[in-house]
Amino acid sequence: MPVNKDQLGNGEQVILTVRTHAKALVGPALLLIVLGSALGIAIALAPPAWQPIATYVAIGVFALLVVWLVLVPFLRWRTSTYTVTDRRIITRKGILNKVGHDLPLRRINNVNYEKSLTDRMLGCGTLVLETAAGQPLMLPDVPGVEKVHRTIADLLFAGDDGYDD
């Protein structure tokens, strides 16, 4: 869910909004295939004397596992966003309990990114925002992390020619 206009300050402009990388959905998608196969096998192997109760139980267990192992991770992914405005970095996540973090751009001292081999193949990475307060803010699974890094660096250092007056 992108940031609502009422969550922005006067004159604040959204520069970009990204959702965490879809690689988080690979495991749940594979689990859905495995669960569907297991459901078919369970129904096929259930003794005829146990029908239709065995089918109902198998479908019930399947439905519970799909909600817990597939739907919940999908909703977590769907509700996790990173928004860059001209004033701050906004993170939002959560299905029922919403968690948000706002980091003003003026507090950021350094911006880095990290990419594992898998991240490089998938085109994502972890954005590391360092502040004077100490503990850096880590934004994992940012798609197009180089573009986001460059955008934030441009916002941080706009008009900075590197010379002290």
Automatic annotation (TrEMBL):
InterPro entries: YdbS-like_PH. It holds the Pfam family bPH_2. It comes from the Bacteria. This is Uncharacterized protein. It comes from Tessaracoccus flavus. The lineage of its organism: Bacteria, Bacillati, Actinomycetota, Actinomycetes, Propionibacteriales.
